[in-house]
Amino acid sequence: MSDNLSGRRKRGRGRERGGLRGNGRKVETEERKAKELAMTEEEYQETKRKLLRIAVIAETQYNELRKQLKKNKEQEYLEYKALVDRGECPEFLLGKAEADEKLKKKLEINETRYELKMAQIQDEYEAETAINETQHDDQYAYAKDRFITFFEELIEEKTKRQREIGLIMGALLTLPPLPTPTSQRPIFVEDVDPNRRQTRSRSKAMRNEEESSTSK
After folding, report:
1. Is 192 helix (H, G, I), strand (E, B) or coil?
2. Can you state the percent helix, strand and coil of the chain, rounding each to 5?
3. What is the DSSP letter of 185?
4. Could you tell me the pTM of the whole model?
């Protein structure tokens, strides 16, 4: 309860003070208006001239200050530029040192990245080269095996054909010679039986010969 009462008293005091301040400003405004109304024409003109003079002086001083400030800035710029050209400006040297340090760090980072990238490219190139060499060796070995296999098969086929040709030639050599106009018809073993009996084909041939001889 005591806290609430003290807070109300404080708020009440603030309202009372605000009201007094508002009344005081109102009274001052009314007094100033009363003084302005009580001024004569000459006093008004004199006050106006004073105010205009003060305004002109203030504007002139402002312009002069602006010109002087501009001149000072130009002089500072020329001096700063001269110091920079000579390399003696502390601010320039400090900024240049900071920029050089940042540039150095960035160059180191770029150099590290470049080295890592080149190492990666080198590893990839070596791996690709190794793969290509292995593939080349495998292809060469495969081609060599195929070449050897081809010639082995070719030699085997040649040997087989030689053997077949030898068998055929041997069979042909066992045959009797073919008849010619001046030779008699050969007697084949197949035409004679094991008991020396003439076969039908043989007897037929003999009959034909006998008939031809009798007809003569």
Report:
1. strand
2. 85, 0, 10
3. P
4. 0.31
The pair of three-digit structure tokens given for residue 63, joined into one six-digit string:
């312009």
pLDDT tens digit at each of 216 positions of the chain = 445 555 555 555 544 454 445 555 666 777 766 666 666 778 888 888 889 999 999 999 999 999 999 999 999 888 888 887 887 778 878 888 899 999 999 999 999 999 999 999 999 999 888 888 888 788 888 888 888 888 899 999 999 998 898 888 888 778 766 666 555 555 555 555 555 554 445 555 566 666 666 555
Query: Cα separation of 144 and 1, whole Å?
Result: 113
**Residues in Cβ contact with 89 at an 8 Å cutoff, skipping those fewer than 6 apart:** 80, 83
List the chain domain ranges. 14-88
**DSSP letter, residue 199:** -
3-state secondary structure of 198: strand
Q: 194 by DSSP, 3-state: which?
A: coil
| CA angle centred on 92, ends 86 and 97, rounded to 5° | 110
Contact 28, 36 (CB under 8 A): no
Chain position carrying tokens 């920079």: 84
Please state, in angstroms and rounded to a whole number, the distance separating the CA atoms of residues 57 and 67.
15
Question: For the chain, how many residues are written?
Answer: 216
